[in-house]
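Hi F.,

I've been meaning to write this up properly since the lab meeting, where we talked about keeping a consistent format for the predictions we share between groups. The idea is simple: the sequence comes first, exactly as it goes in, then the structure tokens exactly as they come out, then a line or two of notes. No screenshots and no reformatting. I'm using this chain as the first example so we have something concrete to point to.
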Amino acid sequence: MKITKFEVGHLGTNCYIVTCLETKNTAIIDPGGNAEEIIAYLNGEQLKVICIVNTHGHADHIAANNKLKEATGADVMIHQDDAEMLTSSNRNLSAYIGSSLVLKPADRILKDGDLINVGKIELKVIHTPGHTLGGICLYTDGVLFSGDTLFAESVGRTDFPGGSMGKLISSIKNKLLVLPDETKVLPGHGPETSIGWERSNNPFI
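Output, unedited:
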């Protein structure tokens, strides 16, 4: 497995390109912008993108969905509780920052426990509501893509529609901290961390 990170958009969202080295099959997680840069990388590496996965429906994590889908033919995937955010600028909050981001509906609606196969990589969907109703994390082979649920020594905001600090902390404690300490955490913003570090040093949990 190869993981390449792009920092995209005005809010510095971490977009991850996850590739099965044996098959070149690839997943794009949270393409919040910089579509041309990402497409150039995909073409240069001759990667076969099979899915675009949004960890939640805020504009800074979904903005490049359409361009990447058009370029690759990949299926867009999002949790069922955030699916309407793709097609509503009010729901994805873009309307509040002076734009109107309205995207195509998802090709696959996700739920807790679903598996996304990317070549020989298996991404497990972990539903972690709190930042949004349909926020998810993705887990595979000792790596957790945590979206805006868990950050290095911080957690996601809960003051947006659908947010709940109680639900967020419950999600982290009951669904993420049960993972091994050595699990690498790749968040939606900021530097990487680990489950063990956050268990010992995150002041919110």
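Notes:
The mean pLDDT is 96.
The chain has one domain: 2-201.

If this format works for you, I'll send the rest the same way.

G.
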